[in-house]
Structures are given as C-alpha cells and as structure tokens.
Amino acid sequence: PAETPEGQACGLVKNLALMATISVGSMSGPIIEFLEEWGLESLEENAHSSTLTTKVFVNGVWMGVHRDPTNLIETLKKLRRKDDVHPEVSIVRDIRERELRLYTDPGRVCRPLFIVEDQQLVLQKKHVRWLTQGTTDDGEDFKWQHLAKSGVIELLDAEEEETVMICMTPEDLEDSRLAALGIMTAKEKAAKERAARKKAAKEKAAREREKNKDKDKDKEKEEESEGEPEDVDPSMRKKPKNEASQPHLWTHCEIHPSMILGICASIIPFPDHNQSPRNTY
C-alpha cells in the first residue's frame, strides 16, 4: 500500500515485495493422479450425495468432490514440504464454501515464509550455519532451495496467505508461548509496573488536591504527569494492547517484517512510526 501510485496509474503500476517471486508453473497431471488415488470422487459417481463433501478444483476446473478434506490437505502440505509436490503449488481451503482449490499455473506472486510448528520455528541454528558455509556437516551442498526441500520455508501465494496465521517476528512466537502458559512477558511486566506507578501518582495528586484545594490548575497537571513513563523505547514496534494477552496459533513467520514491503518502501526509516500517508508520499 505504501508504494501504490495515486491518480491515473493507480491499480496499473504494481510493486513487487522483497523476496517475492513469480510462479513459473508446473504440470497439473501429477496432482490430479494423486487426488484420484486419495479418494477423489468424480461428479458422475457422486451426483446425489454431495451435500457433505468438499469440492476440489485444480486451476479453476472442478475435478470432483472429497469426503475427508482435512486429511487430504495435511498430506498435500507434507508432500510439498518434502519437495515431492512442486513447492509453487498453492493449496487453498475455503471452509465456508466447502471448497479446496489447488493452483499449479504460472503468473502467481509467491513469497517465502518460515514454517511454524507447535508455536516454534522449524528453522534451527544448524540450518543457518549450513546456509552460511554453503554445505552441510556431511559435505553436501546446502543452498536457499534446500531450505524449501527441508521443510524450513514455504512459498505462499496471495490466496493461500489468507488461510494462514503469520507472525511478524520470532519474539511474537515466544510471547504467544508464554501467554499460553499464563506467564507474563518482560514487556507486560514493565507495562504493568508503569501503570501501577502512574496510578499511584494520580492517587497522590488526588490526595494533594484535597489538602490544597486553592492550588493552581497548572500545578495539578504537573502532579498528574509525575508518574508518566520516561523509560519507554521510542523505536520499539507498536503492538495492539491485547495482542500478547491473546495467544494465537501461528502457522508461519515472516523472514523479516520489511519483507512485506517493496524496495522503495523498505528503505523508509521507521515506517511503523509514521502516519501512513507519509509513507505513501
């Protein structure tokens, strides 16, 4: 949004996000064969009893229906993370419409995300070390594409992104884990202490006002502001108040928060502290 042009070019000029790629496409035949082996029922066989089934589409073509879409999707995603299914294949489940849409066509914008399992990154220190040195401990090559084959990262297109939960940083994962266990994070403790200090200062000011009712209003304002927090980091990322207290079931994590932006927008310093129209200008 920060790079969307205004006026005549609006909607025509698009900016590619950092690390985003365009899918080159793959054959849909292997996917269709797999679906037929895994219980896909054709429309002719299932003409009258398709009320509780899920429609299966491949590249927009209705191929049939399936009775256990949850198991089918889990299997497809496992195969994609093992590189048995092409990593650019998109798997989209629409629960409301009872549809499963698979895409293998070219021209879709995909971007990589870290995979999260059990609220923890699949990425480990050994993967970073292997990527830095270019080889594994056994001497085998280890490049960027091997991260996808190892099930560490996953390419998602715009439509599949709508069906997953993406956290911005690994710190958010840690906060969610602590919140799920009922443990307060360091930031929550600091915020609670600041709130307690502010409340105590206000109570003190109220008592002072009762004693000295003739004091000036300016003096009251000064006393109320005595408890204002001064140790807040101005560069800290702003979060919604209830975000940490409500643990989410994250499925993916951003490689870096700036990866959602394009080249020009990503070089703006502290864009999250700007008024949003400023980023556009």
TrEMBL record:
Enzyme class: transferase
Keyword Transcription listed: yes
Compositionally biased residues, Acidic residues: 223-233
InterPro entries: DNA-dir_RNA_pol_su2 (IPR015712), DNA-dir_RNAP_su2_hyb_sf (IPR037033), RNA_pol_Rpb2_3 (IPR007645), RNA_pol_Rpb2_4 (IPR007646), RNA_pol_Rpb2_5 (IPR007647)
Compositional bias per record (Basic and acidic residues), positions renumbered to this chain: 202-222
Enzyme nomenclature, EC number: 2.7.7.6
The keyword Cytoplasm belongs to this UniProt entry's keyword annotation: no
GO cellular component: DNA-directed RNA polymerase complex
GO molecular function: DNA binding; DNA-directed RNA polymerase activity; ribonucleoside binding
GO biological processes: DNA-templated transcription
SUPFAM superfamilies in alphabetical order: beta and beta-prime subunits of DNA dependent RNA-polymerase
Domain RNA polymerase Rpb2 span(s) in chain numbering: 1-22, 56-117, 144-257
Region spans: Disordered: 192-246
Keywords for this protein: DNA-directed RNA polymerase, Nucleotidyltransferase, Transcription, Transferase
Pfam families named in the record: RNA_pol_Rpb2_3, RNA_pol_Rpb2_4, RNA_pol_Rpb2_5
Family label: Belongs to the RNA polymerase beta chain family.
Protein name per its UniProtKB record: DNA-directed RNA polymerase
